[in-house]
Amino acid sequence: MTQQRYTGRVALVTGAGSGIGQATALRLAREGARVVGCDVDAAGLEATAKLLAAERYEADLLNADITVQGDVERVVAAPPGGFVDLLANVAGIMDYFLPVGELDDETWDRVIAVNLTGPMRLCRAVVPIMRTNGEGAIVNVSSIGGLTGSVAGTAYVSAKHGLIGLTRSLAYLYGPEGIRTNAVCPGGVRTNIGRTAFPKSDWAFRRFEQSFDRESRTAEPDEIAALVAWLGSAEARNVNGAVITSDGGWTA
């Protein structure tokens, strides 16, 4: 029987249309949460809605772009009663493995916007709600690319390092008010992030392949979702400001 750690709680999940975000939305719903999910991919959200409906779970799924401030406000305003107990910043994109010498402004701006600015705006929006409630949890899905420069291009690595900095800043400043913030750093995961992972720099990708040789396995999305769910639950009440790898030992 699935644990009911989220009964009566509201969880806001970005990137809920596929991959880790979809798996997180499903897991949290199964654990009793009222899920509010968002994604730019309308078709993906429809697929998530069907999966939830098949198990008779209700959720509020919004087609929204976290890089747009108005959409961030709309998503945060969606939860019933205006409460947000858990924010899971999962949405993310890759950067075609571009090194800085070949990096164009458009790719840099988009990757930073989705992977760092969007999560910051969502954190900025939910922190006042959590402060009023006197508690809350934020889980940011970073990457082992937030710990090393050897697995992705310059924009992705910069954004994911920044997301860890955001996590630690929030943890330090708001931890005394009952708001816990932690980061998860997956390695390879079976998701559709490959849309933005097609390499555009042959020489740089050959360099990255030396790191890929150390990957022992590719995780399933639910394996990362399980860690997100635990970090957001009361079981992890003593965990704040942690940066936890889930990479099958890749970075070991």
From TrEMBL:
Protein name, UniProt field: Short-chain dehydrogenase
The UniProt record lists the keyword tRNA processing: no
Alphabetical GO biological process terms: monocarboxylic acid metabolic process
Pfam families per record: adh_short_C2 (PF13561)
Signal peptide (UniProt feature, chain positions): none
Family: Belongs to the short-chain dehydrogenases/reductases (SDR) family.
Presence of keyword Oxidoreductase: yes
Gene Ontology MF annotations: oxidoreductase activity
